[in-house]
Amino acid sequence: QMEDTLNRALASYGDFSIKLDKFYSSMLFTGVKKRYVGISENGEMQTTGYEGVRSDSSDFTKEIQGEVMRMMLTDRINEIIPYLRDKIENIEKCSLREIAVAKTLSRDLKDYTTNKQNYILALQDSKLEVGQGDSVNIVYALNYPYGVAVFTDIEDLPREVQVDWDAIIEK
User: Fold this and answer.
1) Which of 11, 94, 99, 128 has the fewest CB atoms found within 10 Å of its own CB?
2) What is the distance between the alpha carbons of residues 48 and 59, in angstroms, rounded to a whole number?
3) Which DSSP state fits 43?
């Protein structure tokens, strides 16, 4: 119905027509190309370009970002600050799995030679056998070299992780 109305209005300007792929009852743009979120007519939230849909974000981050966006799009702005305060106050109740950031190696470890990120340095020093295409988990840690504990499975960690909660909150 909306598509027909728009196309009738465009007809007076020439041979133009549009096809609507999606309709959102509420939408948020940030001004960055290909980064937006919308609520469909059936209440489903769809995101493009945000950490919540990126594979290299923790489940904790994805959950928070999704809920804050939903609050913004459903006129619950006044709930955002109390929600974030609660999440920060209770972050230490999260498991390592919830706060771990997944990374997929784009090449073999030996092929990372310059501008190495801290998790690559930690992997190269570890006993983990990983290579191109493998996924590893990263947790910011106070008691591990390079400030991160890297693992494929939590049971593989050589010692308990003293989580750097401040680094996680900052990120």
Assistant:
1) 11
2) 17
3) S
Write the CB contacts of 119 (distance below 8 Å, at least 6 apart in sequence): 103, 136, 138, 146, 148, 150
Report residue 59 as tokens: 């489940």
- Cβ-based neighbour number of residue 160 at 10 Å: 10
| pLDDT tens readout for residues 99-146 | 999 999 999 999 998 888 999 999 999 989 999 999 999 999 999 999
| CA separation for the pair 158, 142 (Å, rounded) | 14
Spatial separation of the C-alpha atoms in residues 61 and 38, rounded to whole Å: 19
Strand partners, 59: none
Three-state DSSP class for residue 126: coil
Cα(158)–Cα(170) distance, integer angstroms: 26
Bridge-based pairing state of the strands 101-104 and 148-151 = unpaired
Token pair of 8 as six digits: 């009738």
Query: What are all long-range contacts of 32-37, with beta carbons under 8 Å and residues at least 24 apart?
Result: 37/69, 37/73
